[in-house]
Write a structure and sequence with these properties.
Layout (H helix, E strand, L loop, with lengths): L1 H25 L3 H18 L4 H4 L8 H25 L5 H16 L3 H24 L3 H18 L4 H11 L4 H31 L2
Length: 209
């Protein structure tokens, strides 16, 4: 049952990110849209849901079973974002959102893979900062400041978040073999970005006394 709930909580995290993506697409002001997108991560960390980009940061601090959980979480995130994307396409608000998402997706799929990888690495450096501060910051206000700085910054910089992109590809109806390949590169880049600071912390704890 443990892994079933890991998957279910990952689906719910995908739904939360997709709702954040929906409000981002609904607003013309990118700054305000990026702030409200943070609703997704806020929901996930406060309710204890499973988001790939947050969990992958801790692979080297956990056991091997956790790595399997991270793969399950990625799949659950995909299911949750896809479901919301499909459902939104069936509503009256769909047309402008689909058009805007399609524009975003065309830009992403028109980029080269090295660029996508690098942008994904930087994205998850910020996600780690946001999530780790929420988990460990001793100041209550600092926990939430980290969330509401990290997420808008990665969006405004144009960095690539694989789970958010799962939603954009879904609502735009732009899934293909190429799309899936790009998503895997984003997934790998997010993993690498999420490992940089935790590995540095581990090395410091090991060698600096």
């Amino acid at each position: 049952m443990g892994r079933l709930f890991t998957f279910i909580y990952a689906v719910l995290a995908g739904v939360a990110i997709a709702i954040g993506g929906t409000v981002f697409l609904s607003l013309d002001n990118k700054v305000i849209g990026s702030l409200f997108f943070t609703t997704g991560l806020f929901t996930i960390v406060t309710l204890g849901y499973n988001l790939y980009t947050g969990k992958v940061c801790y692979v080297f601090e956990k056991n091997r079973a956790f790595a399997v959980d991270v793969a399950i979480i990625w799949l659950g995130n995909l299911v949750g974002t896809w479901a919301v994307g499909v459902l939104i396409r069936m509503t009256r608000i769909a047309a402008p959102l689909v058009e805007k998402a399609a524009g975003l997706c065309e830009t992403k799929l028109g980029d080269d893979l090295l660029s996508i990888f690098i942008l994904s690495v930087f994205c998850n450096i910020l996600i780690f900062i946001a999530v780790d501060n929420f988990n460990n910051n001793k100041h209550e206000l600092g926990k939430y400041i980290a969330l509401f700085l990290g997420v808008p910054v990665f969006i405004l910089c144009g960095f690539e978040h694989c789970v958010a992109n799962m939603f954009y590809f879904s609502i735009a109806g732009m899934w293909s073999a190429k799309t899936f390949g790009y998503l895997l590169v984003m997934t790998l880049g997010n993993a690498v970005g999420g490992w940089i600071f935790p590995v540095a912390r581990q090395l410091k704890n090991k060698y600096v006394k």
